[in-house]
Every structure is written in C-alpha cells, then in structure tokens.
TrEMBL record:
Source species: Streptomyces niveus (Streptomyces spheroides)
Keywords associated with the record: DNA-binding, Transcription, Transcription regulation
Boundaries of every HTH hxlR-type domain copy: 20-117
PANTHER family membership: TRANSCRIPTIONAL REGULATOR, MARR FAMILY (PTHR33204), TRANSCRIPTIONAL REGULATORY PROTEIN (PTHR33204:SF39)
Pfam families: HxlR
UniProt protein name: Helix-turn-helix transcriptional regulator
Gene3D superfamilies given in the database record: Winged helix-like DNA-binding domain superfamily/Winged helix DNA-binding domain
C-alpha cells in the first residue's frame, strides 16, 4: 500500500488512522534495536554474540527486542542441545525480506549524515540566538 499525501479513498487513508493495523508493525521495524538486531543476523547468532556486537544494548532490552521480532515472525529462536543450553537466533524469510529496504535506508543515512549534521548545527545555532 502506497502512502499518498494528497489523500484518497477510505482504503488508502487508513494508514493515517490510529487504529491502522500497520502502526504496531511500523513501530517494531522502526525501532533502532530491532533494525540493529536484524542487521547482525546475517547468519544464526547466539544471544551473547548479538549483545557483544550491539554496543549499548542492555540484556533486558535485547531480550524484549528478540521476543517482539520472534512474535512478529521476523526471527526464529532455536534452542541448542548443548551444556549449558544455548539459544541462537536467525532471520525468517519474512525478516530476510527486510534486508534490501533496510539496506537502502542505511545507505541513504550514511550518504546524508554529514549534511544532516550540518543542518542540525545550523538549526541549533539559530534557535539559541
């Protein structure tokens, strides 16, 4: 479903409503930790390895993020028959399908970061004056 700024029929305008079913999903995919977790899952990865790779994430937040991603069908959790028991996470086909659009967003962010920082500094100077 494309988002139109000019409006449209009732079916198109549902994305603007607070009860639109896409809102919780967009909240999940737009969450910084969710996208970062999905970015590090290029292969099946254990919990502690994910935590080590994501500087600044707490164990609690990572656990919540992994549960939400699993609930939404983006990742799968597999218990490993090791001693002690281990757990690894990997992307599902649905989660894998987000790699390309996320990659484009990431590339855009990197390509425009300097300009965005310059505009932020300019704005901050204007507001403080």
């Amino acid at each position: 479903m494309a988002i139109s700024e000019t409006g449209g029929d009732a079916g198109t305008d549902i994305v603007y409503r607070s009860d639109c079913p896409s809102r919780p999903i967009l909240d999940q995919i737009a969450d910084k930790w969710s996208m970062m977790v999905m970015a590090v899952l290029d292969k099946p990865t254990r919990f502690n390895e994910i935590k080590r790779r994501l500087e600044g994430v707490t164990q609690r937040v990572l656990t919540q993020t992994l549960r939400r991603l699993e609930r939404n069908g983006m990742i799968v959790r597999r218990v490993l028959p090791t001693s002690p028991v281990g757990v690894e996470y990997s992307l599902t086909p649905l989660g894998e399908s987000l790699r390309e659009p996320f990659g484009r967003l990431y590339d855009w962010t990197v390509n425009n970061a300097d300009e965005i920082r310059a505009r932020q500094m300019d704005y901050d100077q204007r507001v403080q004056s």
